[in-house]
């Protein structure tokens, strides 16, 4: 027998209704574990059952997850832990234990793989599944969804919600509206009718900027978006790619296939300061660590990055980011730091003079994207490989020769650090901070 958790999010009864039983063409499942981190903790500590469980500790951290009991108090993920404590002082606050969650996730996905190997991992607790081939044995996607929900609960004591549709967009929206511990089938013939009931923000990928652009056109719901032709949608959002995707979504269409081995899209590292700071040196020192961590991960995964993004979060929780796409992809901490330092100085000019910054900084970090396989990417050697190299380098043959030798030594040093860390631990050696 399934346990049923209380959902506190707004639910539209018309969306949650039975949409019919025609499974023709409905070969895509979206599976989403319910309050996964918190549910894992309750399984580990049964005495927490029925209590509001919140994953996240420390006055400067954010909530990573909250179970449905905690959500009744208004606690949600990404909320500052300090605010969550005010809303739910009786809550059980636990630290994030990613090693444990990954271990449970592996067991969850092992169950999914008993159905098919056509699985696109979205995160530790979410995936898309193409069951077209599996239907030869299972006959119905609904039977598969029932078996998955039952088996995950019987073996692991966890619940999940499943959306069934003819494409990824509608399957995702269906599972969201089936939560918690539910299943929702949207027949292919009713996809457009279904999505028209949604706010535009429900479409995956629509963030605040896109919503603001659509707001200027008076568009809040997908049904309103569907009244525009594709050219008008493109003009509204200012992007041909995003506009095309949104136009299709407004009619319940999605061209994306289930990608079994999706390449990593980005790798990065960020950290919150123990106290808000206006020190440019402190920010740069942290960014140096972020570049080191990120570059080490890139090398471990045999990847090169062409785009680097600087991220800052201010004391008021507002955030800003700046990106730069390099002509030559890299996996070097030195190169990343050189570009991130330039981005920081362009964003906060006082950083270049090591003067107090105009605003207090709460968090700093970087993200690398536009990734490619290091073994198959053809690149020319770059000279800008020293942490403290000046922005304007001499172009004489002698200067370039000297820089070339320094670059080779820097790359060799970074790889040597990787070897030391593998043997003695990742914190055994770090780049010096001058």
Question: What layout of secondary structure does this protein have?
Answer:
Elements: H1 13-16, E1 28-33, H2 36-44, E2 53-55, E3 65-66, H3 68-71, H4 81-87, E4 92-94, H5 98-112, E5 119-123, E6 126-130, H6 135-138, H7 141-156, E7 160-165, H8 168-178, E8 183-185, H9 191-195, H10 208-215, H11 222-225, H12 230-237, H13 240-249, E9 266-277, H14 280-300, E10 303-314, E11 319-330, H15 333-347, E12 361-373, H16 397-424
Helix pairs in contact: 5-7, 12-13, 14-15
Region (Disordered): 393-415
Domain UmuC: 28-207
Subcellular location: Cytoplasm
User: Structural class of the helix and strand makeup?
Assistant: alpha+beta
Going by CATH, what is the homologous superfamily of the largest domain? Answer: DNA polymerase, Y-family, little finger domain
Rg (CA only): 25 Å
The shape is: globular
- Number of individual domains: 3
Strand percent estimate: 15-25%
Mean pLDDT: 85
**Low-pLDDT segments:** 1-11, 381-397, 399-408
State the CATH class of the largest domain. Answer: Alpha Beta
The third-level CATH topology of the largest domain is Dna Ligase, domain 1
Which descriptors apply to this entry?
EC 2.7.7.7, Dna Ligase, domain 1, 39% helix, 12 strands, mutator protein, MutS, DNA mismatch repair protein, domain I, DNA replication, alpha+beta, disordered N terminus, globular, 434 residues
